[in-house]
Amino acid sequence: MTHRPGLDPAVAEVRRAVRAALAGLAEGATVLVALSGGADSLALAAATAFEAPKLGLRAASLTVDHGLQAASAAVAEAAARAATALGLEALVVRAEVGADGGPEAAARDARYRAIRDAAIRVDAAAALLGHTLDDQAETVLLGLARGSGAASLQGMAPASELDGLPLLRPLLGIRRVTTHAACSAQGLQPWHDPHNNDPAYARVRVRRSVLPVLEEELGPGIAEALARTAEQLREDAAAFDDMIDETIEDIVEHAEAGISVSVPALAANPAALRNRIIRHVVAAEFGQSLTRTQTLEVARLVTDWAGQGPIDLPGCTARRAGARLEFTAR
Known about the structure:
The protein is of the alpha/beta class. It has 2 domains: 216 residues, HUPs (Rossmann fold, 3-Layer(aba) Sandwich); 74 residues, Uridine Diphospho-n-acetylenolpyruvylglucosamine Reductase, domain 3. Helices cover 52% and strands 17% of the residues. The strands form 2 sheets. It has a 6-stranded mixed beta sheet, with helices on both faces. It has a 5-stranded antiparallel beta sheet with strand order 7-8-11-10-9. The radius of gyration is 23 Å and the shape is elongated.
């Protein structure tokens, strides 16, 4: 593929990805770039500042100061200055990190809340996140370690939603080395987060130890292979979701304080679809996620029922009642 004379290939690759992500937005809309100051988000911000005006879009950046490091306020202000220099409207917010889950999860939750609130503030049509192909590969490996099945291996989607706000990840097909090269070519000075070198974090250990070993032992292209796997599994999941939507209307009935599903209909479906229907019913009706062990235990009420009693699940109870599988709130 040809590039304009003098345009660095890394800059061109990032801009091209951002242009494709923004193409579906209405002229005059506002986009919000999540900017930490690191190379990935800085390259994303620069590309957005370049491409958005050409599409008739307004662009702003959001930097979240978690206050977890001594110099966090200075880092946030430096990121905001960089955004302003690029021509973006720069926002900085302080987000308190809760105590639920591990530190990574708590900080991520706080960051997403801040993105949602800032998007409302500037009336953004979408938020852009700087996750790269390397982030995707790391996410897939971490999901594999959790052993939660295909759902945990799907990684991050190029487009998702947060309370109705579209979240776009234009750089999911781009390597981290490219975002660093794009910053260098444009004279941008990214911030290097010390947490990215702290082996206390599982993601850092995957990045610094696991993936390099896999590349060394199995050959190059591991990160790309993991990202392809995630994409294929998301396609499979979408197909299953369509099948569930087509099937569920005919086999589900609302019951007092819950919902019931036809046992013969569940039994007639392949195990993969049957298990997904069970998980979908519990998630949709009670807002809870089932583990694989819990799902298989419920499935035994359909395929291997010998009079066993109700099963306690998160948010509900499952029991066999004749030809119906009943889920009742508890």
